[in-house]
């Protein structure tokens, strides 16, 4: 597989330009996004370009496999590669959905108050999912219990009731390139 | 004491290990709602007394009942929400169709929530691209088939791998 993938990425001055990636580089970006998402306590920026391109690659590989000879050993190897990529992609998307469900009022609020120009943490489909989840849960609680409660108690502010992601939790990082002047705030007594 | 029934609901869930869904305690919930109604009505009449009759000594009792009302609500919502989380986990564990035993433990409204959740999830997965999208409820574990490097020490001939492909094993070759 030597074709390159057209990738809508961001260049260094922030403009969106088409960046051409090899499939290997694409998979590396997927794995990086996956690990970042797994280690971060909150929902990170959405990467629809990566998801789209990886899906395209998977389709491509499937096409190639359909056309290849059955006894060719390359078939098993490519199949395993596909399974591996599918696992990473699924795991990445699952991780995001879990965070969306867990912190739904905060995720939605953040999107609502997002300044223009700032990239979204949610893809349009994830946003739809989050909204549906909120509506579903609110309507359920109202119908099963809240509407039977005294009038001044029927409104529950889910934004206050559902915990926020713990941004003070410890994370692991790996330094990929040498950086200068990164200041890590020392642990103050209150932050312990 | 007030809020006993609400605490019982919480305890019931606390006892059930993760992944288990006890039967929906409709009776318990009803009792909590009834207690809330009674507390509210008592407070209403006391508030009137306090305002028009100048009975400011009733105020601590009013506050106390209000706290009980808030506690009842908090316990109720916690009970219901925790059950929703368990039900959500069932979709990921069992798929779209739940075993009957579990369905009997769910209230009709919970079933409705589950169906809405299912639908929402399906719409999302289908949108992921390609013909049918990507079913992310599959591939829950990393692929298992181990890739072993093999070097043939002597001629064996044809060998069938577990996915049906055959490999020719000849002395000193490394077909992977």
TrEMBL record, chain A:
Keyword Acetylation found: no
Coiled coil: none
GO-annotated cellular components: GINS complex
Record carries keyword Nucleus: yes
Parts of the chain that traverse the membrane: none
GINS subunit domain boundaries: 70-144
InterPro entries registered for this protein in UniProt: GINS_A, GINS_bundle-like_dom_sf, GINS_Sld5, Sld5_GINS_A
GO BP, sorted A to Z: DNA-templated DNA replication
PANTHER family xref list: DNA REPLICATION COMPLEX GINS PROTEIN SLD5, SLD5 PROTEIN
Function noted in UniProt: Required for initiation of chromosomal DNA replication. Core component of CDC45-MCM-GINS (CMG) helicase, the molecular machine that unwinds template DNA during replication, and around which the replisome is built.
Name of the protein this chain belongs to: DNA replication complex GINS protein SLD5
Gene assigned in the entry: GINS4
From TrEMBL, chain B:
Gene Ontology biological process terms from the UniProt entry: DNA replication
Span of domain GINS subunit: 42-128
Domain of life of the native organism: Eukaryota
Compartments it resides in: Chromosome; Nucleus
Key words, A-Z: Chromosome, DNA replication, Nucleus
Pfam families per UniProt: Sld5
A GO CC annotation given for this chain: GINS complex
UniProt-listed SUPFAM superfamilies: GINS helical bundle-like
Main location group: nucleus
Family matches, as Gene3D superfamilies: 1.20.58.1030
PANTHER family for the chain: DNA REPLICATION COMPLEX GINS PROTEIN PSF1, PARTNER OF SLD5
Quaternary assembly: Component of the GINS complex which is a heterotetramer of GINS1, GINS2, GINS3 and GINS4. Forms a stable subcomplex with GINS4. GINS complex interacts with DNA primase in vitro. Component of the CMG helicase complex, a hexameric ring of related MCM2-7 subunits stabilized by CDC45 and the tetrameric GINS complex.
Record function comment: Required for correct functioning of the GINS complex, a complex that plays an essential role in the initiation of DNA replication, and progression of DNA replication forks. GINS complex is a core component of CDC45-MCM-GINS (CMG) helicase, the molecular machine that unwinds template DNA during replication, and around which the replisome is built.
Family: Belongs to the GINS1/PSF1 family.
Descriptive protein name: DNA replication complex GINS protein PSF1
Lineage: Eukaryota, Metazoa, Chordata, Craniata, Vertebrata
């Amino acid at each position: 597989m030597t074709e390159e993938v057209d990738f809508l990425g961001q260049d260094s001055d922030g403009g969106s330009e088409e960046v051409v990636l090899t499939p290997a580089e694409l998979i590396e970006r997927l794995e990086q996004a996956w690990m970042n998402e797994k280690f971060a306590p909150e929902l990170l920026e959405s990467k629809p370009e990566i998801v789209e391109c990886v899906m395209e690659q998977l389709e491509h590989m499937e096409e190639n496999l359909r056309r290849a000879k059955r006894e060719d050993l390359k078939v098993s190897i490519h199949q395993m590669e596909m399974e591996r990529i599918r696992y990473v992609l699924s795991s990445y998307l699952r991780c995001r959905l879990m965070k969306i469900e867990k912190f739904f009022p905060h995720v939605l609020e953040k999107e609502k108050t997002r300044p223009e120009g700032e990239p979204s943490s949610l893809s349009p489909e994830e946003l739809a999912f989050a909204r549906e989840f909120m509506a579903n849960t609110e309507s359920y609680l109202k119908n099963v219990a809240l509407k039977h409660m005294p009038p001044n108690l029927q409104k529950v502010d889910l934004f206050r009731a559902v915990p926020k992601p713990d941004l003070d939790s410890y994370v692991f990082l790996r330094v990929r390139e040498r950086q200068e002047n990164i200041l890590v705030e020392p642990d103050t007594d209150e932050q312990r | 004491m007030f809020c006993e029934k609400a605490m019982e609901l919480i305890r019931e869930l606390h006892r059930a290990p993760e992944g288990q869904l006890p039967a929906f305690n409709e009776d318990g919930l009803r009792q909590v709602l009834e207690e809330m109604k009674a507390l509210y009505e008592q407070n209403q009449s006391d508030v009137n007394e306090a305002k028009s009759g100048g009975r400011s000594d009733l105020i601590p009792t009013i506050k106390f009942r209000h706290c009980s009302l808030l506690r009842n609500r908090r316990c109720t919502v916690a009970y219901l929400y925790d059950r929703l989380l368990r039900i959500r986990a069932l979709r990921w564990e069992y798929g779209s169709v739940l075993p009957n035993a579990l369905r009997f433990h769910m209230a009709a409204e919970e079933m409705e929530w589950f169906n809405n959740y299912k639908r929402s999830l399906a719409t999302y997965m289908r949108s992921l691209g390609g013909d049918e999208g990507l079913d992310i409820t599959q591939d829950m574990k990393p692929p298992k088939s181990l890739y072993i490097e093999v070097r043939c020490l002597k001629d064996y001939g044809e060998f069938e791998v577990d996915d049906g492909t055959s490999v020719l094993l000849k002395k000193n070759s490394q077909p992977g």
